[in-house]
Amino acid sequence: MTELTPTPTIEDYLGIIFTLERDGEEVIGARLSELLEVSAPTVTVTLRRMVRDGWINITPARKIELTPKGVDAAKAVIRRHMLTEWMLAKILNLPWSKVHEEAHRIEHSISSEVELSLIDKLDDPALCPHGNPMPGQESISSKWKPLSECITGDKIIIERIHEFLEEDPVLMDYLESNQIVPGKQAVINEILPFNKTITLKNESGIVTLGLDIAKSIYIEKQH
Amino acid sequence: MTELTPTPTIEDYLGIIFTLERDGEEVIGARLSELLEVSAPTVTVTLRRMVRDGWINITPARKIELTPKGVDAAKAVIRRHMLTEWMLAKILNLPWSKVHEEAHRIEHSISSEVELSLIDKLDDPALCPHGNPMPGQESISSKWKPLSECITGDKIIIERIHEFLEEDPVLMDYLESNQIVPGKQAVINEILPFNKTITLKNESGIVTLGLDIAKSIYIEKQH
DNA sequence: CATTCCCTTTAGTATGTACTAATACCATAC
DNA sequence: GTATGGTATTAGTACATACTAAAGGGAATG
C-alpha cells in the first residue's frame, strides 16, 4: 500500500489488467507479457511489486485481480488515455491511426486538473476515437457484434476497433486508409473461412481483412 | 553518442544547461544540483552519462558545455515545454500560474508531429506564457529591464517572469493573483533597499515583491 | 506413463536515477 | 599558512525496470 501514484509502467499494467477483466479474459502473467512485450520474469517481479503496493491480488490459481484501489487507478489512466486521444484527434488534428501511440506516452503525465478540463472541452465523451468505451460506459459497446460474425451481403457500420488492435501502427494505418473507422459504412463482399479472410466494400473500394483482426472489430448491422 | 533520444531526466538537465548558457551564467554542477533539487553526487554521475552520450562536454575547469547535438535536444525540449504551456493556457484554460508545472511533466512525451501541430494551432509563438523567449527568439526579451532596476514613479508593463521563478508554485500563485503577469501595467510605488523590497501599484492594488524576485521579472518602461 | 506445451519462478545481471557519508580540491580570507 | 566555503568526487547503497538462462510445475495428449 506504499505507493500513492502508480509509475508509468504500473499504469500500463493496470490498464491492460482492467481491459482483460472487462472482456472476461483470463488475467495471467503470460497475457501481460505478450501485450506489454516484456519478458516473463519481468512480469513476475513487477506483479510482485504491484501486490506489495496494493494494486492487485494474485489468487492461489495465479489469476490476477485488481484491488478497489487498482480499479480506481486503472480507470483513471484509461480515461486520461482516451481523453488525450480525443484531444490529439479533434483539437490538434492528428491522424486517427496515430493518436493511440501518442496518447499512450502522454497519458501518464495528465493531472486531474487537465483531465477535468479535457472532459469539459470534449463534452465528456463515452467512447474513445476508436469506439472503445470509457470506463463505466461499457454498455454502449456491448450491443455491437464482431465483424467476423457477419455473413455475405450484410450492410454494416463500423463501430469499434478493439484496444489491443490499436497497438499495431501498421494495421492502424491500413485501417484508416481503407476507411475501416467508426461511423463508416460497408457491405460484406466475401468470406473465405479456409483462407481466414473477410472482404468488404466501402467508399474506398474493396478491403480484405484477416478473420482474427475481424474478431476485434465491432459493427452494427443496417436493415 | 549512444542515445538517440534523451530520457526525461537528461532533458531536464539539457533545458537548464541551455538556459544558464543563454543567460551567460556559469554552468557548473553545483548550479544544476540546486535548480534540479538533486544531490551533488547524483549530478556528477548524470553528467558523466551525458558526456558519454555526447550531449555535453566538461572543460578541464569543470564548466559544462552543450555539444551541437545537446543544443538541438535542449532547444527541442524547451520548445515543447513552451508550446505545451500555451496549449494548457489557451486551449484548456488552465491558470497561468499552473501551466509550467503541468507542462514540465508533459513536455517529455511530445513528438515532433504533435509539436508541429501545436505550432500551427498556436500561431508559432515567440514567447512562452510567462514571457520567456522560445529558443532562437532571445532578441525579443533582451530589450526588457529587470524590475529591480526601476525607480519610484516609473510606469511599467510587466513583460517576463524568468524561467527559474516558474519553479516556485507558491510564488507563481502570488504573482498571478496580484496581476504580476505579462502585459499588465503597474507603477513603482516604493523601493526599500534596506528591506530588499519593491512595492508597486496596479489594478489589483498594492503589491510588495522581494528585490531578489524583482531581479528576475523584466519590464518595459512606459513614457 | 512419458512427452510436450504453457506458464511461472529463480538466479544472475545491467542500467538509470536517486541517496548519504566521507573525502578531496581549490581559492579566498583572516 | 591555516581555516573556511564552495565544489566535486568516491564509495557504498537502494529501487524500478529490464534482460537471459535455467529450472520447475501442471495439464493435456500421444
TrEMBL record, chains A, B:
BP terms from Gene Ontology: negative regulation of DNA-templated transcription
Cellular compartments per GO CC: cytoplasm
Highest taxon listed in the record's lineage: Bacteria
Keyword flag Glycoprotein: no
Span of domain HTH dtxR-type: 1-67
Molecular functions (GO terms): DNA binding; DNA-binding transcription factor activity; protein dimerization activity; transition metal ion binding
Intracellular or extracellular location(s): Cytoplasm
Keywords: DNA-binding, Iron, Transcription, Transcription regulation
Transcription among keywords: yes
InterPro entries (UniProt xref): DtxR_MntR_Metal-Reg, Fe-transptr_FeoA-like, Fe_dep_repressor, Fe_dep_repressor_sf, FeoA_core_dom, HTH_DTXR, Iron_dep_repressor, Transcriptional_repressor_C
Oligomeric and partner information: Homodimer.
Family classification: Belongs to the DtxR/MntR family.
Protein name, UniProt field: DtxR family iron (Metal) dependent repressor
